[in-house]
Design a protein that fits this description.
- The protein is α+β, with helices and mostly antiparallel strands.
- Helix content is about 40%, strand content about 15%.
- It is built from 8 helices and 11 strands.
Length: about 300
């Protein structure tokens, strides 16, 4: 059947009339669905907001307590434990560093006494046989000479400049360490600063007299130093020497002259820092009498 213009208009009119009848008989069918959706969305939003406000009120009622955090390092695993309010959690830092209390509960500056250690040789007895084990475990393979060392920068860290310590003019070593030993040296220098501050002693830098050595350095050094061994810990980039009879003064050139500090006083403070590092399992320390230094190997 051919659809003419008249037939099309007739059909359209019939559809319109049917829709009108449906609306009259069933008014709910013609409701505004978009309006219903908006109202439903508004109800959900209000419910979520009320739930959030209720949760925030509960959180505000909880007392806020500030607690001290004490870190301790577990041996062999390289993972630290952090004790906080009686709970124990894992810390991502393998090198915990104690933070001294510079002020008491009344915000008065704390002054601690210098106690030193019972005896240097007794407190720092770690000899070559003990330190060489840690050196071979954490160090790099020995370098033959300085040129060889320059090719190992991917394994070593430059330690020629740092605000916490001073590198002496090196004659038989080069200013490189493995990262683990570099962090230890930095922590020793920082802890030394903190100890001087809390004990009321003017700031001084520790002086590093020897760092990594090549096989050629060890061979030449054996002609002058009877303590130098062919299999020195310094070969592995894990060991450094800190002298205990010299220190570098830290002062402001524009400030007034500071009071003088005896090297023995600074040695006492340094010995306390090294004792704490050693007892924390961070390093081995040997008290060298003839060389006037602490011989230190990272653990």
């Amino acid at each position: 059947m051919k659809i003419t213009k008249n037939r099309y208009l007739l059909g359209f009119s019939i559809v319109v009339i049917l829709l009108a009848l449906v609306r009259i008989l069933f008014p709910s069918v013609a409701g505004d669905t978009s309006e219903k959706a908006v109202q439903k969305e508004e109800k959900n939003t209000v419910a979520v907001k009320e739930e959030k406000d209720s949760k925030d009120k509960k959180d505000k009622k909880k007392p806020v307590k500030v607690v001290a955090i004490a870190k301790t390092e577990t041996k062999d695993t390289g993972v630290s434990r952090v004790e906080k309010s009686g709970e124990e959690i894992l810390s991502t830092s393998p090198f915990p560093l104690a933070v001294p209390n510079f002020f008491d509960a009344n915000y008065n500056e704390v002054r601690n006494k210098i106690s030193s250690v019972p005896g240097y040789a007794k407190t720092f007895p770690d000899g070559q046989d003990l330190q060489i084990g840690a050196a071979t475990k954490y160090g790099v393979s020995p370098v033959q000479n300085r040129r060889d060392a320059e090719q190992r920068k991917s394994e070593l860290v430059f330690v020629g400049a740092n605000p916490y310590y001073h590198i002496d003019k090196l004659q038989r070593s080069i200013p490189y360490l493995v990262p683990r030993a570099a962090v230890l040296l930095n922590d020793i220098g920082r802890s030394f600063y903190d100890s001087l501050q809390i004990k009321g002693v003017p700031l001084h830098q520790i002086i590093v007299t020897s760092v990594m050595r090549s096989r050629d350095d060890v061979k030449k050094l054996s002609n002058y130093n009877s303590n130098a061994t062919e299999n020195s810990c310094h070969l592995y980039g894990t060991t450094f020497d800190i002298c205990y009879n010299r220190y570098k003064t830290v002062s402001d050139p524009c400030a007034e002259p500071r009071r003088a500090v005896r090297n023995d006083t600074l040695k006492w403070v340094l010995s306390e820092v090294l004792r704490d590092m050693r007892e924390a399992g961070r390093c081995y320390v040997k008290y060298e009498v003839k060389q006037g230094c602490f011989h230190i190997t990272v653990r």
